[in-house]
Write a structure and sequence with these properties.
Elements: E1 4-8, H1 12-16, H2 22-29, E2 34-38, E3 52-53, E4 63-64, H3 66-77, E5 85-94, H4 97-104, E6 108-113, H5 121-127, E7 130-133, H6 143-154, E8 187-188, E9 191-192, H7 202-220, H8 222-228, H9 232-248
Parallel strand pairs: 1-2, 1-6, 5-6, 5-7
Antiparallel strand pairs: 3-4, 8-9
Helix pairs in contact: 3-5, 4-6, 7-8, 7-9
């Protein structure tokens, strides 16, 4: 289970701020996970501590120089030859809930945040083991993506959510989006909580939530249902609440 996260970044304050925020901050404060930052500027020579330079072949922007970045990555990795180094990049594997569970099961997470036009490819070829993306868009740097990944992973660690079933009911955990949720008051601006949630029949409530999750996924993310499919129990639950809606009408 994950116990340590190292982030190589030119803007460590971006990441250190997680220590003060929500579930991630509490997990760090109580020792569930350690968070460390490594700044390539600390390994750059000269007064100006330059970590970027013009790209060979011309073109706009700057590229992160290999040596300062390599030394920062090697310092983060230390003697742990088993730890994988991941880089946040639009070219990487798409982060999804299955990947988040996979990452939470590792002992260490080492993340490299790129900046400028990119990282010298020789560093990617020799020191980076995997690449991760949080979506098909471009950010000004890898720090926001690293923060997203850290938050998603840390909340899966034992004891962080405070209720073991919370993570199991999240969207994507069973290949479905989450069901709707309601709280007090029972009636708000003319809108009422669905009666089934007030019935006290916990088995029926669970079936209703299942049906709602399936229907929401069908409407909003049909591609997920195409991959997952529905089993006989799913079809039975859908039919039960479809019939109930027709009777009510």
């Amino acid at each position: 289970m994950l116990s340590r996260i190292d982030v190589v970044t030119l803007f460590p304050d971006w990441i250190r701020g997680l220590r003060e925020l929500g579930l991630t901050g509490r997990a760090i404060a109580d020792g569930t996970v350690d968070l460390h930052c490594w700044n390539p500027r600390d390994y750059a020579p000269g007064v100006h501590k330059s970590v970027d330079d013009r790209p060979y072949g011309g073109g706009p922007g700057m590229v992160m120089r290999p040596e300062p970045l390599a030394q920062a990555i090697e310092s983060a990795r230390g003697d742990d030859g088993e730890a994988l180094v991941g880089c946040l990049t639009p070219q990487g594997r798409r982060l999804d809930q299955a990947a988040v569970r996979e990452l939470a099961g590792r002992e260490r997470l080492i993340l490299v945040c790129g900046r400028y036009e990119g990282i010298d490819e020789r560093v990617m070829d020799t020191l980076v083991d995997e690449e991760w993306s949080i979506g098909d868009f471009v950010l000004s740097g890898g720090e926001p993506a690293a923060a997203v990944m850290i938050d998603a992973v840390v909340r899966l660690l034992p004891g962080v959510l405070g209720h073991d079933q919370s993570a199991e009911q999240d969207s994507f955990s069973d290949g479905l989006l989450d069901c709707p949720h309601y709280t007090r008051p029972e009636s708000w601006r003319g809108l009422d909580v669905p009666p089934v949630l007030l019935s006290g029949d916990h088995a029926r409530i669970e079936r209703w939530r299942r049906a709602q999750a399936i229907e929401r996924t069908r409407r909003r993310r049909p591609d997920m249902l195409d991959l997952r499919g529905l089993d006989a129990e799913d079809e039975r639950v859908l039919a039960e609440f479809s019939d109930a809606e027709q009777d009510k009408g």
